[in-house]
Every structure is written in C-alpha cells, then in structure tokens.
Design a protein that fits this description.
Belongs to the guanylate kinase family. This protein has about 180 residues and is of the alpha/beta class. It has a domain of about 110 residues: P-loop containing nucleotide triphosphate hydrolases (Rossmann fold, 3-Layer(aba) Sandwich), CATH 3.40.50. It is built from 5 helices and 5 strands. The strands form 2 sheets. The protein has a 3-stranded parallel β-sheet with strand order 1-4-5, with helices on both faces. It is globular, with a radius of gyration of 17 Å. The protein starts with 8 loop residues before the first strand and ends in a 23-residue tail after the last helix.
C-alpha cells in the first residue's frame, strides 16, 4: 500500500526538461491527490495560456508588492527561497545532455534569441546548483515513461521511494551558450 509522502515535493529543473509533461501525467492518474499550484509571473502569456490556469499574469509592480507583503510561499528570479519549516523533498529533473536540452528548447518554437539566452543562463545556474548536491533526488529524463514511473514512485511514497533516482550526468555547463 502506498501513501503520499508527508512533506511537499518540489520539482526543479531547467526549462525544457519535461517538468510540465510529467506532472500533467501524474495529475491525470491521481486527480484527487495532486494539483498544480498556479504561480504568478510578470511575463506575457504565450499562445493558448489562460490567466489563472497556467499562471496568474501580473505586473512587476504588483508582484513586488506581494513579495513585500510576504504573500508568496516562495518566489524566484532564477532561484528560489523556501521557508524551512516545510521540509520539502527537492527533486531535480535533469536533461540527459546539454545538446538534448537545447534541442528541446529550440523545438518548442516559442523562444526568441534573447529569451533562449536567458533560459540557457538560468539552466546553467540550476545545473550548477544541482551539481553542488542541493537536491534530495535526481531523475534524468532520458526516457519519458521511465522518468514518469520514477516520479510517481516518489510522489505516492511507494516503498523504497527514498532510493529512487539517478546520478546527475556529467553536464558541461560551458555548452550553455547560444
């Protein structure tokens, strides 16, 4: 018998590693157990995105006012700060290679050269943070079904979930340039 892990599960990883795809699959399988928090963002909506569904789209001024009022559990500008009493499990979703990550981002067809550069810079910082050993678990998304099974085992607290995970691949962050 499985039971949900008692603490929050925080899934981190660069844009393009499959976080949204894996989470949508998990939520579809366990609709009464999991949900997706709707974050606030100051960026403009992409085609098909709806305010309040994918994100709460807001102004920078409103966002910073909410930060000052401590209305957010966490917030980030290429890095987040968490309140320690939550004791979350941090899971890093890693790309199998830098080339794969770049290909996924380019394949979206939504990135300008400027936004691609920013995403790659953010990916570099996130991967460097992961290399430091900051996460409790790592899943390398080199196979969507395998990564999904591993994520599910962790999320539902399957026996031995603490032992799930991969070694972080040798990712050369110097390749994270346009």
């Amino acid at each position: 018998m499985c039971q949900l892990i008692p603490q929050p599960l925080v899934i981190c990883g660069p844009s393009g590693t499959g976080k949204s795809t894996l989470l949508k699959s998990l939520f579809a399988k366990y609709p009464d157990a999991f949900g997706f928090s709707v974050s606030h963002t100051t960026r403009s909506p992409r085609a098909g995105e709806v305010d309040g569904r994918e994100y709460h789209f807001t102004t920078k001024e409103d966002f910073m006012t909410r930060v000052e009022r401590e209305e957010f559990l966490e917030w980030a500008q290429f890095g987040g700060n968490w309140t320690p009493p939550l004791n979350p499990v941090f899971l890093f979703l890693a790309p199998p290679s830098i080339a794969h990550l770049k290909s996924r981002l380019r394949g979206r067809g939504t990135e300008t050269d400027d936004s691609m550069g920013k995403r790659l810079a953010a990916a570099k910082a996130e991967i460097e943070h992961a290399i430091s050993g900051a996460h409790d678990l790592v899943i390398v998304n080199d196979d969507l079904e395998r990564a999904g099974r591993m994520l599910e085992a962790v999320a539902i607290g399957a026996p031995g979930w603490e032992e799930v995970g991969d070694e972080l691949p040798a990712l050369d962050v110097t390749e994270l340039v346009l």
